[in-house]
Amino acid sequence: MSAVIRHGSEDDITLAEVDRVAVVGGGGYVGWHIVLRLVGCGHSVAIMDLGLFPEAREAVSANKSITFFRVDIREKEELLDSFKRYRPKTVYHVASYGKQTVA
After folding, report:
1. Which residues does residue 91 pair with via DSSP β-bridges, in sequence order?
2. Residue ranges of the NAD-dependent epimerase/dehydratase domain (predicted)?
3. CATH class as words, domain 20-93
4. Nearest to 67 by CA among 31, 15, 16, 26
5. Where are the domains of the chain?
């Protein structure tokens, strides 16, 4: 498994040999934009969060490349179960203890 990140180009996220990516906190503003770039590069993405950024709700249900796991990162067993079920090769962690949203 290797990851290559190129900065300063139109395609500034290029992941080699990675197809299953988890974005912990992917339901927030920053995480959602990471999800969009990853899906745009052809990756299957799991969002692990308590809820979804309003713009993301409709897009998640319409896009088969995105899987949503409603999970609280403070609940270790919940989070581990999500990882066992999805089995990502790469994880981006952008979650915080900020305002909770509802999916």
Report:
1. 22
2. 21-98
3. alpha beta
4. 26
5. 20-93
Q: Give CA–CA dist 64/14, Å, rounded.
A: 21
37 contacts: CB under 8 Å, gap ≥ 6: 13
Structure tokens at 30: 């920053």
Q: What is the pLDDT of residues 15-72, one digit of tens each?
A: 444 589 999 999 998 999 999 999 999 999 999 999 987 778 888 988 999 999 999 9
What is the reported pTM? 0.77
User: How many other CB atoms sit within 10 Å of the CB of residue 87?
Assistant: 9
Residue type, 92: Y
SS3 percent helix, strand, coil of the chain, rounded to 5, is 30, 20, 50
For residues 59 and 32, give the distance between their C-alpha atoms in angstroms, rounded to a whole number: 10
DSSP 32-62: HHHHHHHHHTT-EEEEEESS--HHHHHHHHH
